Amino acid sequence: MNTPASAHPVEVEQTIRLDAVIIGAGFSGMYQLLSLRDQLGMQVKVLEAGAGVGGTWYWNRYPGARCDSESHSYMFYFSKELVNEWAWTERYPQQPEILRYLNHVADRFNLRSDILLNTRMNSAHFDEATNRWHVYTEQGQHFVAPFLITAVGCLSSANLPQLPGLSDFKGQWYHTGQWPHEGVDFAGKRVGVVGTGSTGIQTIPVVAAQAQHLTVFQRTANYSIPARNALLSEEFKRFAKDHSEGIRHIMNTNTNGHSFRMVNRSVTATYPAEREAIMETAWIKGGLEFRAAFNDTLINPEANQLVADFIRKKIREIVLNPEVAELLSDIDHPFAAKRPPVDSQYFETFNRDNVSLVNLRATPIERITARGIRTAQAEYPLDILIFATGFDAMTGSLLKMDIQGRDGHLLKQVWRDGPLNYLGLQVPGFPNMFTITGPGSPSVLSNLPPAIEQHVNWITDCIRMLRDKGLQRIEASEQASDGWCEEVNKAASATLLAQVKHSWYWGANVPGKPQVFMPYAGGFARYTEICNQVVSDNYRGFELSA
Q1: What's the pLDDT tens digit per position in 23-42?
Q2: Alpha-carbon distance 351 to 357, whole Å?
Q3: What distances in angstroms separate CA 159 from CA 57, 88, 176, 390, 479, one per listed residue?
Q4: CA-closest candidate to residue 425, choices 414, 417, 415, 437
Q5: String of b and e for 135-170 (b: at least 16 CB within 10 Å)?
Q6: Angle CA(326)–CA(330)–CA(332) in degrees, nearest 5?
Q7: Are 203 and 343 in contact (CB under 8 A)?
Q8: Alpha carbon of 494 to those of 300, 303, 373: distances in Å?
Q9: Which residues face 175 on adjacent strands?
């Protein structure tokens, strides 16, 4: 095995032999541990860099952090008992409640004994001679196992913009994805928020209610649908439990993995008065279901324009200052072609006397100064600076790790022009390594818990098949990978997603990142069908060997 000195600079204190190593203890890692351990009787350990389980929801503690999937759909459904014993309190759960749920899962299934917290993977190298992955941690452990499964999340690698002068800033600065667990006191402070994507839209109203003054630095105006969040009634809680099988069936058989179906209705074929009434009803109900009121919003430019105009009109109705309303509604992309957020009083926040909006398109940031932010037009004094600038999505967490496959293949090198993969599950040249909700899968275009269950179940069944047949290795072929990457591009090109390349779906938010559309846009149900067909065809596209 080619193991350079830099691969594991920490002195190795112990070698532990296992059947599988899993990286990450969020939704994905914990369910994969449970499946391999309890279904297949495997010896498995999960390596988790954080001091607790929860993955994304352990790290993301910024003000207003909340799920944009409805709570009854943002949970595991593999266990009827788990569904029945957990009760959500809100339509859209906040970070603390989601983290409590994931801790409940860890305790409910006795997972903690097989999860190593405060343990960060340093490198993972494949030894072809022994068909084993050698995983080294920064803490000095050495794990040897035939299977390596990455469960690092799609949105977990914080993206900090490269702005000159940040080290000169005399105040406090934070990234929403690396928020201090003790929280931040904004009382009496002048706060600046850079970024108006989903994270910024959640953060801004909460900060505005506490700060002396909030300055929002907007480069790209964004659509947002009101969440209409509320406490769940006892009647709805009973309904969700009584109809859990039906809810699960809907999530697993529709386009986006949510608990509602897209209405088979065209925007352009609907009479204007009726169309307006439908959108008004969907707006009042709120949430992501607004996107499901019609089925051609993301494939027909004319249809999209009509929906986008409706949202712009709503922004202008909500925001009282016409100039501010114009800046907030001057949106440069089709609706839902970038991640469409849901919000709690986002646009209403700009009616507050202590909130101002800076248009970075007209006056870009020149640098961070000791006192605050200087744009091409003015300097804004700040005590606290918040970067709500999102993540190095889909690939960032994987590429931060030293992963070396067969024949010395480095993942960083293999993915230098984009994330080559097959089904978002495997990468050619990396035998027995699986990626849960990796690039090339529906992942961020889907409600993630059902997508995670589908991936984990597929991986578990695959390993079971290998063991039953006495096989030692599975590896995606390059031909299958090339074909799947073409299929991912084809699926995106059938939608308006392909037209908006200044999006993190394309990696455009990270300087130097290859501009490749990363998630599969053909729909969760279609993707599941393809994965099942691959299995039925004796794992078509994978090379199996003893």
Answers
A1: 999 999 999 999 999 999 99
A2: 11
A3: 17, 31, 10, 6, 33
A4: 437
A5: bbbeeebbbebbbbbbbbbbbbbbbebebeeeeebe
A6: 180
A7: no
A8: 10, 15, 41
A9: 387
Ordered structural domains, the chain, with CATH: 11-53+111-157+393-545 (3.50.50.60), 166-387 (no CATH)
By DSSP bridging, strand 379-381 and strand 384-387 are unpaired
Burial of 219 (0-12, 13-18, 19+ CB in 10 A): middle
With vertex at residue 398, the alpha carbon angle to CA 397 and CA 399, rounded to the nearest 5 degrees, is: 95
Separation CA 258–CA 262 (nearest Å): 10
Q: Where are the beta strands (DSSP E) in 109-177?
A: 115-116, 121-127, 132-137, 141-145, 147-150, 172-175
Cα torsion at 71, 249, 536, 529 (round to 10°)?
-70
Q: Tens of pLDDT along 198-245?
A: 999 999 999 999 999 999 999 999 999 999 999 999 999 999 999 999
Per-residue confidence (pLDDT) for residue 10, from 0 to 100 = 54
List the beta bridge partners of residue 353. none
* DSSP per residue, 477-517: -HHHHHHHHHHHHHHHHTSGGGG--SSTTTTTTSTT-----
Look up tokens 């939608």; give the residue. Answer: 495
Element (H, E) at 468: helix 448-468
Calculate the alpha carbon distances from 310 to 276, 313, 315, 410 in Å.
Answer: 8, 5, 9, 48
pLDDT bucket at 6, cuts 50 / 70 / 90: very low
AA identity, residue 168: D
Q: List 412's β-bridge partners, or say none.
A: none
User: What residues contact residue 257 under an 8 Å CB cut-off, 6+ apart?
Assistant: 73, 251, 442, 446, 447, 448, 449, 450, 451, 524
Q: Are 196 and 221 in contact (CB under 8 A)?
A: yes
| 0.85 exceeded by pTM | yes
- E-strand spans in 397-486? 402-404, 433-435, 473-476
Q: Distances from the Cα of 198 to the Cαs of 133, 194, 291, 316, 541, in angstroms?
A: 37, 12, 16, 20, 37
pLDDT band at 5 (very low <50, low <70, confident <90, very high): very low
The residue with greater pLDDT, 509 or 185, is 185
How does 427-460 read in b/e, with b if 16+ C-beta sit within 10 Å?
bbbbbbbbbbbbbbbbbbbbbbbbbbbbbbbbbb
What letter would DSSP give residue 73?
G
Q: How many CB atoms lie within 10 A of CB 473?
A: 17
Q: Position of tokens 């603390």?
A: 96
| Alpha helices, DSSP H, located in 243-291 | 244-252, 272-285
Residue 203 near residue 341 (C-beta atoms within 8 A): no
Amino acid identity, position 85: E
